[in-house]
């Protein structure tokens, strides 16, 4: 599944909502999120990719492609997102190092670090196709 596609987001929702550990960590979360992957034309990623979702008591409720006004917007170069999904960099570390830019209550986001770590683990189980130079690092999924 191509990273950032609607098919990918539907699988993200399905796996997130069926993972007991993630659901326990996310319980009570009612925020909305936009994730933006910035283009890297020199590496074969020509266009920005944006997607988002809402949580209702920790369950992923609505998903979409494109940008919307949300409680949190997290953006960064496409390659940073690939590194996070490959396990080369943690998401909260990427935020702390300003490799990902976060808009919204930053302390709240960082307090949810255990939930974010588990969510990335769930995402790594999805067969994922990357664009451009990153295609050599596609995730086989589980």
CATH class term: Alpha Beta
- Biggest sheet record: 5 strands, mixed
- Give me the number of helical elements: 6
- Low-confidence stretches are none
User: What would CATH call the homologous superfamily?
Assistant: SCP2 sterol-binding domain
Main-sheet strand order equals 3-2-1-4-5
| Mean pLDDT across every amino acid position | 95
Share of residues in helices:
25-40%
**Order of SSEs:** HHEEEEHHEHH
CATH topology: Nonspecific Lipid-transfer Protein, Chain A
Instruction: Give me the CATH architecture, please.
Output: 2-Layer Sandwich
Beta-sheet strand percentage?
15-25%
Question: What is Rg?
Answer: 14 Å
Distance between the termini: 13 Å
Oligomer: single chain
Number of strands: 5
Helix and strand content put the structural class at alpha+beta
Shape: globular
Structurally, the number of domains stands at 1
Would you give an account of this structure?
The protein has 142 residues and is an alpha+beta fold. The chain has a single domain (6-127), classed as Nonspecific Lipid-transfer Protein, Chain A. Helices cover 36% and strands 23% of the residues. A hairpin with a 2-residue loop joins strand 2 and strand 3 (59-65). The protein is globular, with a radius of gyration of 14 Å. The chain starts with 5 loop residues before the first helix and ends in a 19-residue tail after the last helix. The mean pLDDT is 95.
